Amino acid sequence: MTNPFSAVRDAVLDLDLDLDLDLDLDLDADGNEAQGARKKFPHQPIGQAVDMGHADDGTPLIDPRLFDSSEFRRNPYPYYRIMRDHHPVFHDRLHNCYYVTRYTDVEAAYFDEVGFNTIPKGSSSGVLGNTQLELSGLEHRRRRNIYGRHLVGAALTKRLPALRSLADDLIARWWHPDNPKNVEVDGGTVVVELGRAFANEFPIGVVAQVLGIPVEARAQFNWWYDAMMSGLGGSDTHHEGLVARQDLEEYVGSLVEERRTSPTHLYDEDGNEICKDIISELCHAEIDGDVMSTEEITSFVALVVGGGGETTRGAIMNLWYLLLQHPDQYQAVLDDPDLWHAAFHEMLRHSTSIGGQPRHNTFEIELHDVVIPAGSLVHMVDVSANHDDRVFAEPERFDIFRNDLYSDKILRSGYDKDGRRSHMAFGVGPHLCPGAWISEQETVVGAQVLSETFRNIRLEIDRMPTGLDGSTLAPVGLGSIRELWLRMDRPAAQ
User: Fold this and answer.
1) DSSP 158-221
2) Which domain CATH number covers 215?
3) Any domain includes 361
4) Does pTM surpass 0.70?
């Protein structure tokens, strides 16, 4: 049997590029080991790139092994700048894909339902199941129109008390005698790790609550979420993720059948009925006499579980990490709580935990003199689009007051007016992230509740990763920070 890596290696070696790729690989007898497929790229100061060589005309080159390196994960933006300026459509032959990195190109592709109509088949249907991510056209719009109205506007506003109540309950657990959140109290000061104490649990707790998962099943719901997240990407835990999804779908399927005749509701802190939970709403929602099938509802729930936790966890962590490094901006949101929304959107533009969205092109497309064959894997790189200096001035600067970023109501159509543009963290167009609105609400409400608890909050520098100099804080890089250690004065009531 032909070793699949050999084919990739040979394709790279056949490139007519002046690159020292060092791909003379030491394969074992079965051709399985490929040591030369990786290259150690030295860490550079933030904003500076490793020199990967130049073409005869002086154009900087990109070594595709860069994308597998820790240097790229921690310091991606100078490399994306090279790609935007010199390789706006980069053909990565090593990984057999294309990268689209300029804002206007990413935006246009998201609106092109014909040319770039959906994410690649199989990208989500493993652990997450048969979700609408892989649908396009009429069927995608049908499902989106049925459930979409329950995730935006007035429907979300009704659920605000439930979100705030959950945040209050989590923070109250910081002070329990058995210390379930490992909060450290030393006299008049308190140290918390925000992920463990709040951000890891709050988003998935919100999802469970607004969906209408019964309280007695919440612990099991958390296991389903953890197992599904661990199983993404074909890892050793993939099988457990598949089992968890099947288990979740069977359970939700039984809830759906019950709630078609007996809907359940969310309640405020005084026990007053607020509105139906989302599963109950979906069981009865109609468009042109059409309702969602049980399979469609369980598929939607699996998608919300898969996407509703980790991205919002990352948003909460990154938001506080950035704001506490810019104390003047943090003070501004304390003085004017409406600015939390601007801070949320600037955080997503600056350091989103959502890297981008993959697409397959329906037919051959030529873009920037690069021919993309039909059916290719094409990555729309949101994080690069958000740092495109053709759109955002000084894109590496975190500034909640910037006048070129639109940070009002999230629009599927995007926003381009009066010198302001939408960020691309949620995408735009037909496949804009369906959880965008609830993610904003979770992050902002959670931040507001936390800010009411925090007293003289500051980063616990000694426990945080540092940069190359060993003293400055490490950058967010791609994704989100994993731990956020905070020190505050002990609240008087505790």
Assistant:
1) HTHHHHHHHHHHHHHGGG-TT-TT--EEETTEEEEEHIIIIITTHHHHHHHHHHT--GGGHHHH
2) 1.10.630.10
3) yes
4) yes
